[in-house]
Amino acid sequence: MKRTFLTTALLICCFLASFAAIADFSGMWTGTLKTDTGEIYPLLYNFKVDGDKLTGTAKTPKGDLPIDDGKITGTDFKFTVTLGDMEIEHTGKFYDDSVSVDIAADGAKAHTTLLRKK
What we know:
Helix content is 19%, strand content 61%. The protein is an alpha+beta fold and 118 residues long. It is globular and about 35 Å long.
């Protein structure tokens, strides 16, 4: 009985800690993306979290683009941004002070780190 209670209490604590991390994910995150050709692009995302749904915008030189099909599982996430007829897939992981992002489009892949904008 005590073991069951302790296990249940620990699971509930882990579950609540996971939601605390997700809630902390909302807001502005910025970074840069360096391509294989050496070009550097500034990145700015405004993430909004509602349960396990991730929405918001990605700022580009062509304006703000909506985040589509966003999903959060624990501290992992995935979403797409559509630029013209190109879908840019984003996957990554949220940490306390940064976001690790893998970006894939038209067979090209890149990795970057985002920091919370102050």
